[in-house]
Specification:
heterotrimer, A mainly alpha (270), B mainly alpha (279), C alpha/beta (326), B: 279 residues, mainly alpha, 12 helices, globular, disordered N terminus, C: 326 residues, alpha/beta, Rossmann fold, Alpha-Beta Plaits, 2 domains, six-stranded mixed beta sheet, four-stranded antiparallel beta sheet, 10 helices, 33% helix
Chain lengths: 270, 279, 326
């Protein structure tokens, strides 16, 4: 036990200092919280507007999509809070921050992840949580053991999957540097995809955002399972239970991407 | 009597040359970031394909047409708006904001140029450049993969180009307003974030504003945001007929005059404030 | 912990692939470096910009993988053993900070103590020692971003030494510092080495750094080691000139002494001056002979009040070595 505390102490020391730094600028922190919440609300509005125009979209109604949005945005915002700054890797590369990580006796990725935390994104997670609760209530989801287990599994797997996306993107940014926006297509595009009814996607999108980057598994499929909806040919409702498998796959992808990126940094680029 | 016009043209020509050089400088600065443009293009195209899936499903669910959009018009909306993303400033960030924050703007006031016009013109140049690596390729991808409606004849194309230029200019002139607020605010980041969150939504970036419920549609129309993106898209896609297109262009001109005048007034007030406080 | 070899490289080399428009080209940053640094040594690693100094340091620390050759630092292979090596070395990059810019300086030390797993006693003892020796006390509670360059550099050195590494690598440590700050930093490094036997490796453009801190210099040119030995020996091998600065009692016209070149004068007027500078080649003549010749020329009415000998400039030496090789 004492050993584990010693292993975690460096990370705790860095994170604690980050939290203190953010909270010390109260006015600016409050502003960040407010704007972060507004982002969540606008994103919900974006989806809601579509469902106000038509009754059902891809087999889901407004109530169902609010549940999908709730699960997806809660998971994404929490992952974003802890892993979001992996997106700043190009800045870290230019400032030489990464070289400094090499001089410390912890794994690079662990140092990068724990080098910062964005508490303001918790405000957006709050919007996701409200949508999730509202979705559960308006859909009259029964509080059965199965549903509770599925919900917990979905949120935890979703957080893991989205976190993996940030890490994967970090690995790719070693190659892309100025072209880092390309990874936004899959990280933020992935978030957008996760809040949609995946049944409207054509074959290529199913391959990319259904399976390769398993976005459909973060919220859409678990919601189908919970609501007892059938889903489509490629993404049937019962797949919701496989959310943890998707999360594991996402992490395989992420760690492979990170490894290739670091190899490139040490070996090819400079 | 004959002296006056010649005198004025002698003054006008150097001024025009100055601004055309600023425009070209902005254009060149944009051209330095080729890899960044590639990244942006990948992102635009991916978001475009996701939007095609969901918005086509909306058109389909509504029976083939929703708020005047059929599949061809919706496709045009999606790809043209994605293509303009690199050109229309929906982020609220500009270089001049930083110069105002640091006080470097004092030296800008010493140059024989209008500070507002110079900042806006340079941003417009940068935005126009972005059409080459991001705008045109994005629309081309959409055209090849999905297909879409186009401008309504040569006159429609002309109006579309005009509307596009006006849209870019209105966005640069409005972002300039965010920047000049820095004369009175220690930190205008809050305003910038507010602009970023609201502008995309109200400009019709995520969903065409015609799909908004009545009250939200009216709210959007009371702001300059639709003039930045939704109107140019409607004119370029031929969704607006010539008469409507002309009307939209007039509305854009109206907003441009309004935000430019406000920007000019705020710039003067800001300058006086600097002079009073001694920089 | 003392004794043994701290750095050993054999045929160490590194290439970079660069893209020029459409074509890719391979640039050799370091060709084949053989070097050895023993425990307790202080070594200056000098060479022109682009000679491969930073690349070498990055390979010694495990940041870059060598393209060819072998490198052992503190008995470890830098890349596979990076995390263990991190406990043995401290690095100060002149251009990049390892401190947290928005936090008070002492908080960076606290975090780094946790990062390196120091016990509370070790942390207290070492921090107190470094704070006193580097005179950090006055700005411990000031955020790093508000420090002057000199203060920041001292804090960086303390941060690199907090975990008492065996090897301290300094990449341009005094660049941009004023004379007093340079002086303080050098004095500290001399004392640190004396007390703890810390091995020093520094890259620098500053002659004073090498003169005050290093027993040995390594000169690298186009990715290969071209000299290893004392600075004086290096100056001798390239025949670098020394300059004698003479302060005279009465102003005279520029002195003309056989075997020397006049290098300017100060003070006085109408073509006569009090301070005169004469450059000479230490291989061809001696300071004593030059002085004798000057005294004879001045005659009985004038005399030399004071005299100083200036050693050759590091840039000058490097330039001469390079010129001789091309």
């Amino acid at each position: 036990m004492g050993d584990r505390t010693a292993v975690l102490a460096p990370y705790r020391a860095v994170l604690a200092s980050r939290v203190r730094a953010q909270r010390s600028h109260r006015a600016s922190f409050r502003l960040d919280l407010g704007s972060s919440m507004l982002v969540g609300v606008v994103e919900l509005a974006e989806i809601a507007v579509l469902f106000l125009t038509v009754d059902r979209l891809g087999g889901l109604d407004l109530a169902a999509i609010v549940l999908v949005f709730g699960i997806a945005d809660l998971s994404f915002s929490l992952a974003d809070t802890v892993f979001g700054h992996c997106d700043n890797l190009p800045t870290y590369l230019k400032a030489g921050t990464l070289d400094v990580f090499y001089l410390r006796p912890q794994p690079l990725l662990a140092q990068l992840v724990t080098s910062d935390i964005s508490l303001r994104r918790l405000a957006r997670a709050f919007v996701g949580l409200v949508a999730l609760v509202a979705g559960l209530v308006v859909n009259d989801v029964a509080w059965s053991l199965g549903n509770v287990a599925l919900l917990v599994l979905a949120v935890l797997s979703g957080i893991a999957t989205f976190s993996a996306m940030f890490v994967w993107a970090g690995g790719m940014q070693f190659f892309l540097v100025d072209g880092y926006e390309a990874t936004n297509a899959f990280v933020y595009g992935g978030r957008y995809a996760a809040t949609q009814p995946a049944s409207v996607w054509g074959r290529p999108l199913v391959v990319v955002f259904g399976f390769f980057f398993p976005m459909a598994f973060t919220a859409y499929l678990p919601a189908l399972t919970m609501l007892g909806l059938p889903g489509g040919d490629w993404l049937p409702g019962w797949l919701g239970w496989l959310a943890p498998v998707a999360a594991v796959w996402a992490w395989v992808l992420a760690l492979a991407g990170w490894r290739i990126g670091v190899r490139h940094y040490q070996g090819g680029g400079g | 009597m004959t002296q006056a016009p010649r005198g004025r043209s002698r003054r006008v020509r150097p001024v025009l040359r100055t601004y055309s050089r600023l425009l070209a400088a902005g254009f060149r600065r944009g051209s330095r970031y080729r890899l960044a443009a590639f990244g942006g293009l990948v992102a635009n195209a991916t978001f475009g394909l996701l939007k095609v899936a969901v918005l086509f499903a909306v058109v389909d669910a509504a029976g083939g047409e929703v708020a005047g959009y059929d599949v061809g018009a919706m496709s045009a909306y999606i790809w043209i708006s994605q293509g303009l993303l690199g050109s229309v400033n929906l982020m609220g960030r500009t270089d001049i904001a930083e110069r105002i924050r640091t006080g470097d703007v004092t030296t800008d006031f010493l140059r024989p140029l209008d500070v507002q016009a110079a900042a806006v013109v340079e941003d417009v140049g940068k935005s126009l450049f972005a059409l080459i690596p991001r705008g045109v390729p994005t629309v081309t991808i959409g055209l090849l993969l999905v297909g879409m409606d186009g401008p309504d004849g040569p006159l429609g194309l002309l109006l579309g180009a005009l509307s596009l230029l006006l849209g870019i200019t209105v966005s640069c002139a409005t972002v300039y307003l965010v920047a000049v607020a820095g004369f009175w605010m220690v930190d205008n980041r809050g305003l910038q974030i507010l602009y970023m969150v609201l502008s995309g939504f109200l400009a019709g970036l995520f969903v065409p504003i015609a799909l908004f419920p009545g009250w939200l549609h009216a709210t959007a129309l009371a702001t300059p945001f639709p003039s930045m993106l939704q109107f140019p898209v409607d004119v370029l896609s031929g969704r607006a007929d010539h008469a409507t297109a002309a009307l939209l262009v007039v509305v854009q001109v109206g907003w441009l005059v309004a935000v430019a005048a406000l920007g000019q007034a705020l710039t003067r007030a800001g300058r006086r404030r600097l002079e009073v406080q001694g920089g | 912990m003392s004794g043994g070899t701290i750095i050993e490289t054999e045929g160490l080399g590194r290439d970079f692939r660069v893209r020029e428009g459409m074509r890719r080209r391979t640039v050799v940053a370091l060709d084949a470096l053989d070097m050895r640094v023993e425990a307790g040594e202080a070594v200056g690693y000098i060479g022109a910009n682009g000679a491969g100094k930073s690349t070498t340091i990055k390979m010694l620390c495990g940041i870059l993988v060598p393209t060819r050759g072998r490198v052992v630092t503190c008995g470890l292979r830098p890349v596979p053993d990076r995390r263990r090596l991190a406990r043995e070395i401290g690095v100060v990059f002149g251009q990049r900070s390892q401190l947290w810019w928005d936090l008070p300086t002492q908080e960076s030390f606290r975090i780094l103590a946790a990062v390196h797993g120091l016990s509370p006693e070790q942390e207290r003892g070492r921090t107190a020692e470094l704070v006193e020796r580097l005179e950090l006390g006055e700005f411990l509670t000031v955020p790093v971003r508000q420090l002057s360059l000199g203060q920041r550099m001292r804090a960086e050195v303390a941060a690199a030494l907090l975990h008492s590494p065996r090897l301290l690598v300094l990449d341009e440590p005094t660049i941009g510092l004023d004379v007093l700050s340079k002086q303080r930093l050098r004095e500290f490094l001399v004392a640190e080495r004396r007390e703890h036997g810390t091995t020093l490796l520094l890259t620098t453009h500053d002659m004073g750094d090498v003169e005050r801190l290093c027993d040995r210099v390594l000169l690298v040119d186009r990715g290969a080691l071209v000299y290893s030995g004392t600075l004086a020996g290096l100056s001798r091998t390239v025949g670098a000139e020394r300059v004698m600065v003479l302060d005279l009692a009465e102003p005279v016209p520029p002195l003309e002494v056989a075997g020397t070149t006049h290098r300017g004068s100060e003070g006085g007027s109408e073509g006569r001056s009090l301070r005169q500078r004469l450059a000479f080649d230490p291989e061809a003549t001696t300071a004593a002979r030059v002085l004798a010749a000057v005294t004879e020329q001045l005659g009985d009415d004038n005399e030399v009040l004071d005299l100083a000998i200036e050693e050759p400039d590091v840039e000058d030496v490097v330039r001469r070595v390079y010129a001789a090789r091309r």
